[in-house]
């Protein structure tokens, strides 16, 4: 573009300052939303992508009756290693079920991710410690801390291998339990394989007879080009023929399990054994940000068409003087490109303003993703895409007109151009209405989750982190009595599973010579009272009934229905070689949130069942009287070393309602993101409507003046100018309503417990959309209606 073209473009932009500002600002909003969303998306997709063997690493899991598990038996890994040459490396990981204090001479750190693993895992997941070869070391066990934990426990040590292994105390200084630490690992980028402390051994299952009990995560690294479907079939045959039927098998149903391979690239966002809500959020954010950018491009294109038509005589003169059509198209595209670059620069400023808010919103440190090459590349593609989408159409259309027709002033915008602009405006408001309605649907469902019947009451229920196991009720009596002696503590219990925590595992129960899969939760006296769960039939467990300890069982309503019990009280069912009499039926409780159906569940005080399906009872819960939470916890912290000596001075707790809230934290994040994008969509749509209404009304100034001279009042003028745009919005609402209904239903169907879609949600969305459109148009319409007609008709 030469200097003269730049001057002409600048004068044209300056002559229509309002349109130019709205144009560039609307596009900047689109770019900003796009960059912010993709900073998060890029982060989520970066987990383990730095691993040189990223595409060749797989998790081996088991699937039974549609339920996938990430655990597999210990014997599977060595069998794969010796029989399948296409597998280069295989390793197992086991996670400690406890959160444990590690105590050094300098500080204490509460270890949440304590892993044990085969040494091959270090090679598979690229774990390195400077100064030591993890695979070649002669140490029987190598203990490694993560950089963050190493800095906390050993602030004077540098990352790398220690000259002499250091010792940390576990539980407390007097426990006698210790662990040797050999070094601090190198910093690693985002990975699914996270640890605070990892103990590496040559064979993590050495000397154990785990049979087919799946207690390990098993990972394999395959050779490039391996047919993974064929490999999965081979591993499944190996499992079925050599492992699932071993004599140590205690659960015959595992013989029916099928092996699956889950690629490493899927494990963070959509693992086969877990929730894929994180993946859905990234897809939603990517879609929403692209829609925002598309709407901004539509606005830009609409206004470029309007602006270009105002420059028709300039185009005609250039064609008369021999400027080719290609050069005219290039000129328009260049002008659009410059404005897009300006919008991209402004979007960078907007991002800087909200970046810290984004970090708090996502709960992540996005600093490494500020303006990486990936984001800049994505933004560059967006700028080029916008330039072509917004500039190509007006450039091609206007450059093809006959120059003599243009110079004579006979060029009309035409019905085609007007219809195209109207269609773009309709599309914008279809998207806007879908967003508003979807936001209302999401808000209503989230309110239902927060206020709906969960089957329990978590208010003032505290979860105390504990390391002692209380598998028999007699062991917990003293703890309960001491805790309840503190003013404000009403009920105390211990259990294997808590709401919002790990989901209970399924066990095989027998009733009338038939087997049923029921979830099994180990509890103690006062469990149902602590959680406020209602007993529908019979009674709760009570120390007054000694038979409850070894022979009593309580079922939830779904379990009663599953077993087909018309009169459940007194019926006998068995599990793990124990027979139990049903003493009560409790109301169903949504322990794992509203996305999953309540599973048939059985509660016992004591059983012969063991790991991994039945974890130990160590989760202590306490119900505290409202208004006395702080004083009760303060006093409990003082007395804790005497109450529970194993935990010593370390008294750690959290509130169960907060833990449960984490189940739908991602959905809340989606709700907030959707709300923010809805505001952006409406802002971009209204900017477009404002600009188009301003242009349209400005072209009808003389018509308005004549009507006022002939006696039309301000209300009639206001109605006249609003009518065509309100009609456009109504058409958009008509088309958008079934789309919004379909999208809302698709999202609600991801919940086992959901609201029904009421008609008034769409009515509220329509009213909001119409009201905002009316206010936006009316600003221009009112200005036009109060203008003195003599001014608008002066040049006639």
UniProtKB/TrEMBL annotation:
Domain ABC3 transporter permease C-terminal, chain residue ranges per copy: 288-403, 676-789
Domain MacB-like periplasmic core: 20-237, 484-593
Alphabetized UniProt keyword annotations: Cell membrane, Membrane, Transmembrane, Transmembrane helix
Topology in the lipid bilayer: Multi-pass membrane protein
The keyword Cell membrane is assigned to this record: yes
Cell membrane keyword on record: yes
Subcellular localization, as worded in the UniProt entry: Cell membrane
Location (main, coarse): membrane
GO CC annotations on file: plasma membrane
Positions of transmembrane segments: 21-41, 281-307, 328-355, 375-398, 419-442, 676-698, 725-744, 759-779
Domain of life: Bacteria
Matching InterPro entries: ABC3_permease_C, MacB_PCD, Macrolide_Exporter_MacB
GO molecular function, one term: transmembrane transporter activity
Family membership: Belongs to the ABC-4 integral membrane protein family.
Name by which UniProt lists this protein: Putative ABC transport system permease protein
